[in-house]
Amino acid sequence: MPALRASSSLLAALALVSGTNASAHRRDDFLQAARIGLEPDRVVITLDLTPGSAVAESFLAALDHDRDGSLSAEEERRYAERMVGALSVALDGDTLPVRVLSRSFPDPSVFRRGEGTIRLTVGATLPRVSAGSHQLLFRNAHLAGHSAYLANALVPESADVTVTSQRRARDQAELTIAYSVREAAR
Predict the structure, then answer these.
(1) In this structure, what is the dihedral angle of CA atoms 9, 15, 18, 21, given to the nearest 10 degrees?
(2) 0.85 exceeded by pTM
(3) What is the C-alpha to C-alpha distance for residues 169 and 44, in angstroms, rounded to an integer?
(4) Residues ≥6 apart with Cβ < 8 Å to 15
(5) What does the alpha-carbon distance between residue 103 and residue 115 come to, in Å, rounded to a whole number?
(6) CA nearest 135: which of 171, 98, 166?
(7) Sequence-ordered alpha helix ranges (H) in 93-175
(8) Cα 183 from chain centroid?
(9) Where do the domains of the chain lie?
(10) Residues 114, 155: Cα–Cα separation, whole Å
């Protein structure tokens, strides 16, 4: 019995340690997490963008165009627009224009510790859709090859929209959300 308890304790400790390492943010990646909210007339995407500490300096150098050590509102706006330019959102095969709704940037010193996260909220107006099944495609090509991506659909706030499935690319830079609309939107 004592050997079984010791083995169980060791397994539990290993699971805890390995779980901690598996979820830790890698220092050399740019983590891009997208949460996608679908409603009958719009899609809102919240992007949390976190450069690892090993890439923070080069990331900041690309943002801080005047090299003053801080990010101006104009530098933040330009980055947000560049990020949106790398996104693709399509409803039932038709590309939708995406625009920045809000942005939040931490102080640059936080990036150097690998803890700084930019939050962008972007959105698109959906055209009038018929009741029934639809597909929304989200694709993120921002800093491809240097990023770790995550993408998930949120539970819709409207009872008229039901997410029926999510299909991700292996790297999660692309997510197709199948959903149904109970009644014609708008």
Answers:
(1) -100
(2) no
(3) 20
(4) none
(5) 17
(6) 166
(7) 108-112
(8) 29
(9) 27-181
(10) 30
Q: At what angle do helices 56-63 and 73-85 cross, to 10 degrees?
A: 110
Produce one character per residue of 35-65: b if its CB has 16 or more CB atoms within 10 Å, e if not. ebbbebeebbbbbebbbbbebbeebbeebbe
Measure the CA–CA gap between 26 and 70, rounded to whole angstroms: 25
pLDDT digits (tens, 9 = 90+) for 9-36: 333 333 333 333 333 445 678 999 999 9
Q: What angle do CA 35, 38, 41 make, to 5 degrees?
A: 140
Amino acid (1-letter code) at residue 29: D
Residues 65-110 have pLDDT tens digits of 998 989 999 999 999 999 999 999 999 999 999 999 999 999 998 9
Question: Token digits for 64?
Answer: 């801080």
